[in-house]
Amino acid sequence: MAGELSMSPVMQDALVILGAAGIVIPVFARFRITPIIGFILIGVLVGPFGLGTLVREIPWLQYITISDPERLQPFADFGIILLLFAIGLELSFNRLWQLRRLVFGLGSLELLIIGSISAAFFGYYSGMETTSALALGFALAFSSTAIVLPISGTKSPVGRAALSMLLFEDIMIVPIIFILGALAPNADGEGWTALTDTLWQGGLVILLLLVIGRFALPRLFSQAARTKSPELFLAASLLVVIGASLATAATGLSPIVGALIAGLLIAETEYHTEVESIMQPFKGLALGIFLITIGMSINILTIIGDWTNIALAVVGVLSFKAIVTGSLLKMMGARRSTAAETGVLMASPSETTLIVLAAATSALVIDSETAQFWQIVTAIGLTITPLLAKLGRSIARRVEPTPELPEEDEHEARTIIVGGGRVGRLVADMLQAHDQAYIILDSDPDIIDRAKRGGYRATFGDAARGDALNNLGIENAPALVLTMDEPVLAQRLVSKLRGEHSELLIVARARDTDHAASLYRAGASHAVPENLESSLQLSEAVLVDIGVAMGPVIASIHEKRDEFREKLERDGGLTEKPKLRTSSAAADG
């Protein structure tokens, strides 16, 4: 009838996904649970094995379910491409070169040992043909780039180890799939030729991308930046990542190789921060779509019908991979805690496992029933990866306990440092060097754990809540130091604390002179602009090392501080000239 609302299946799927994102992200964030689990559970619920089975009996369910997961696959693949692009943005060619030993040493050993031992197990105990056992063994050896790296990051020891192994696995996807095709029962002998062609053509394309990108990308983003248009900047970013992915895919290589190279090239330009921030929402949504498709592949009824074998398979794969990966890391000199945490985190199979299983099935290397069983095992492993991350951190604390610190009097007057990052730990070092009591407060449990392992006095808590500071005895604290790089929160805390404790010495880290003026107006005793102090220290080092006498250099440094004091007073509308040092004596010395 006229005016009746009709909706295409693609539009229905898009609304379901956007609705899922709108529910999962805030709800799971509220309970401090990673949304990864939420997206997978949503996939189970709205997929063809969940509420989708009831569409015939309850027709209106078609509007909140997804009956054909394959329609979402292109979006899920795009999510993986954006993830590798974002990883490239966080890296650089120099950093990647520094990781070469881990990538080609640890990464190759991990994949080879897990794959070959697994293949030997399946061939001996399950009676599989050699080709089938190799396909299954190496498929299960892969770990999830899409889930592991958002959890581990790339800068911690665990993140660097995981990144190295995952990079090598991503490089090896194409050769493994080609080899499976060449070894297939119906292979025509052209598989090895195709692999050779792909490798030399892909190498040539990668070389061209590196050369062209070095010269073209800075000019492209410079023009986009001059327009002051976020839309054009976004369009340029998508053009680069999609173009590079299509270029590598055209030669037979994985498109994620092109995405990673595009990210690495942009990381070498001064525009990488802007590109990273503008692409973040798209990466998160696309990754959510990928996780939903993983959930859709889980058939609860099949799991219930064969739960014993599936449970044994999941536990066996996770345990074996964790032991091998952890042992390799320990042999290569990693700390016990890092080896244990990384091993458990990397234990589950991967989205790549599903790709290899599909390729092996189409090549008649693995029968469909066996492939379906291990697809379910893989989906379960992906679902519980966030739980494995928590288990890994717990095991790491046990195998390498935090050092025991001498007991202290909780009522002792001590400086409270809010923020346990690099700056906060440096402040703690200086206080300890002068025998001054302190306590670090942070709301990130991982930061607190690292601080304790480093021998610092630290405790978990949210400074924005009054009881956290009260429990640490703020009424007796000689000073409160705010070191976190969160300008708005720092300003609110200063204003709140000045109203509650009028005599408290509050020293705050400021991002720049404008932020310092805001902190002074809020009631800070001292605000230290990090860009000012670093500039003055650089100037002092240069002048002294080129032969200028120390006395005149220090005098000029003080003069420059005075200029900034006057500027803060003038621009910030302050009633008196602020201090930029923690004591007038230090400033005069």
TrEMBL record:
Alphabetized UniProt keyword annotations: Ion transport, Membrane, Potassium, Potassium transport, Transmembrane, Transmembrane helix, Transport
Compartment annotation: Membrane
Domain RCK N-terminal per the UniProt entry, residue ranges: 412-529
Domain of life according to the entry: Bacteria
Keyword Ribonucleoprotein on entry: no
Region (Disordered): 566-589
Topology in the lipid bilayer: Multi-pass membrane protein
Residue spans crossing the bilayer: 12-29, 36-55, 75-93, 102-125, 131-151, 163-184, 199-220, 232-250, 285-304, 310-332
Ranges of biased composition (kind: Basic and acidic residues): 566-579
Keyword Transmembrane in record: yes
Name of the molecule in the record: Cation:proton antiporter
Organism: Erythrobacter ani
